[in-house]
Design brief:
Layout: H1 6-21, H2 25-36, H3 46-59, E1 63-67, H4 73-82, E2 87-92, H5 95-107, E3 114-118, H6 121-124, E4 136-139, H7 146-156, E5 162-166, H8 182-196, E6 200-209, E7 212-221
Parallel strand pairs: 1-2, 1-4, 2-3, 4-5
Antiparallel strand pairs: 5-7, 6-7
Helix pairs in contact: 2-5, 3-4
């Protein structure tokens, strides 16, 4: 039996990606553009991008909100999921990141489906009130603001809206009540909100792989 080491997690993740996701020139070009622009290597792994795409398609989501675009890698997966006639609103705090994302989305042929809103999400989200509800919300931004983003996800959604909250494992530190790292504290507060706020019904999965020891929470707005 293989040892449960980070190296073997990575090898298994690469095997799963090769087997179930395959090679995609547009997505690989998007990653190359992110690297060339000096963006941090924090986008979702290929198997996680495919999972997002499948959740969008399985839920029938046509209007998707993404909080945290980075260079648009996950955005491409989401935009492909909504299909023709669907749309994605993606919020990105950094203008340089948003420019990379816009170029990647256009190069991937899904630019027309995506509106990028530049600014801090806590300031952009209130401007979306009054629009049609979102069918799915993907949250992958600063962890310190998770409760703010979850609150807005419920307010901008509807009963049945799917919420995906990324990076909830924090290499196991999330279970350490004494850990005061702001990202860990923000993650715990977000999970606590998903477990106690009556607007949500949620669960979470630990993951290991290309991005180390992490996890994702999935919720419904009820």
């Amino acid at each position: 039996m293989a040892e449960p080491t980070p190296q073997n997690w990575r090898l298994t993740d690469e095997y799963l990606s090769e087997t179930l996701v395959g090679h995609d020139p547009q997505l690989e070009a998007a990653l190359a553009a992110q690297r060339a622009a000096g963006l941090p290597d924090i986008e979702v792994a290929p198997v996680s991008g495919k999972l997002l795409n499948l959740i969008v398609r399985m839920s029938g989501a046509r209007r998707v909100l993404e909080i945290g675009a980075l260079g648009g890698y996950s955005t491409i997966w989401l935009a492909r999921g909504v299909g023709e006639g669907g749309n994605v609103t993606s919020i990105e705090a950094e203008p340089d990141n948003a420019a990379v994302a816009r170029a990647n989305l256009d190069a991937a042929g899904v630019g027309a489906r995506v509106a990028i809103r530049i600014g801090r999400a806590a300031e952009v989200l209130p401007t979306l009130e009054g629009s049609d509800p979102f069918d799915l919300v993907f949250i992958d931004a600063d962890k310190e603001s998770n409760t703010v983003y979850l609150d807005w996800a419920a307010r901008l959604g509807r009963p049945g809206t799917v919420i995906v909250l990324d990076n909830i494992g924090r290499t196991g530190d999330v279970a350490d009540a004494d850990n005061t790292d702001p990202m860990v504290v923000g993650t715990r507060e977000g999970l606590r909100m998903l477990g106690s706020d009556p607007r949500f019904d949620a669960t979470a999965l630990q993951t290991v792989g290309l991005k180390g020891w992490d996890g994702v929470a999935i919720a419904l707005v009820v």
